[in-house]
Task: structure prediction
Amino acid sequence: MPGFFFPHNNMTELNGKDDCKLGESKIHKKKQKAFGADLKNYLKSMVPHIESGIKTSSSRNVMLSAEEVIQWSQSLEKLLASQSGQSVFREFLKSEFSEENIEFWLACEDYKKTKSDHLHGKAERIYEEFVQSDAIKQINIDYQMREATAKRAQDPTHTSFDEAQKMVYILMERDSYPRFLKSRAYLNLLNQLQTSASR
Result:
């Protein structure tokens, strides 16, 4: 997870415990505001399509319904099976600074569909971006899993990342997913869709 770096001249302002709490509180508020803005923009982009079925830039109709959003609450699997679900969940994970989990999971899904002659290059990219101990988007897996995945990535097959992907999925399922279902991101989207449907 990324750390917070303060310029040297601001360090004097954060001397006592109260000041540290104040600093953390300001960061948390900024994080919430940024997430709120991202969610607002996402909802604005989704709602016109919901109401009118306007084609998106990828030239396919986005028909997001309250029923689909309710289905997301049945299981993480159902949430991730939906393109819109992935997008909303990803925004939520960004607000918690843990989007590397879904990014790794999606990269693994893509990797499984890769042609054999391209496996080596993709395995190397996934390993460097998510698995190695100094990876920019390092996923939260234990040392043994990291070592085992590193070995599998050196001689890649379509299942090289399966165990690590499963571990990250379980982490999201037990940790982030329950919080997502209670989040304003999810509840506001559901409420907005239900309101649109009842008009």
